[in-house]
Amino acid sequence: MESKAEGRVEVKMSNSDDRMGELKAFDERKTGVKGLVDAGLTKIPILFHHPPEKFPIASDAESSMIPVIDLEGVAKDPMKRQQVVSRIREACETWGFFQVVNHGIPLSVLEDMKDGVRRFFEQDDVKKEFYTRDRTKPFFYNSNSDFYSSSPLNWRDSFGCHLAPRILNPQDFPEVCRDIILDYRTNIMKLGITLFELLSETLNLHSNYLRDMELGCTDRISCAGHYYPVCPQPELTMGNTKHSDASFLTVLLQDDIGGLQIFHKDKWLNIRSAPKTLVVNIGDLLQILTNDRFKSVQHRVLSNLIGPRISFACFLATVTLQHQSFWAQ
């Protein structure tokens, strides 16, 4: 239900017990959380209110505390490669997260990918065509993947798509971000091969071990683009609640807004982005495969006053986007 007051549109949602009715009304708009912000609301709907215990004090730790690993020269310099393998091993066993620089993906591609995500979410007519809760579609957009079962909701809109092993039809993707997604796919597959080779070596295995597994570590890739709109009451809601990823490995591109945090040694630490840097984290499947030697750690995303926050996550995995954790980060 919408009402106008002093030239501003204010979205009001009922406080009654008819939660399902409220959810359906939100879903039918097909404009997501961004639609609420565009309508000019100053207070977030009750559907998005999280209990106070969801907001423990976060540490002011900088991203320098998270290992930053330089991949330059790993293919040609055996000594450098051994140093990188050692650093990745330590990061996987201690943090479950690390960042990579000189990863081979041009800065122009990274920036174009972020711009592509932003363009999609900021063109209402375009994104409405792809609004669906059928995650078997090659490309799909909605708000909160577990929309009808989760309580409360997260302050985030998302799209998802499958990059491999399917033969992609460009016409399945929105024109506003089609070319860059397909370009990014090529780059992330190359980086994935490099990362899995290095991870194999951290386990004292042949570099092709993880690549050649029947589980298909590098030939099953899904991705999710996220848009976290500015939030008028960030103290009441979350961009995404704590979770771990059901993948082997996740490679995350994010802008400089901040908000991603990991749970490390009983406290939440901030992970801040830097140009040319990608965040890599261990998923549940790789933790299982390594008998808990590598850590798949809890992480979350805070809502913010200065958004929108943009991120694009690629999941190198053997499972599909049917799993809700693929809509994280």
From TrEMBL:
Keywords: Iron, Metal-binding, Oxidoreductase
Signal sequence range: none
Domain Fe2OG dioxygenase span(s) in chain numbering: 217-318
The family this protein is said to belong to: Belongs to the iron/ascorbate-dependent oxidoreductase family.
Protein name as annotated: Fe2OG dioxygenase domain-containing protein
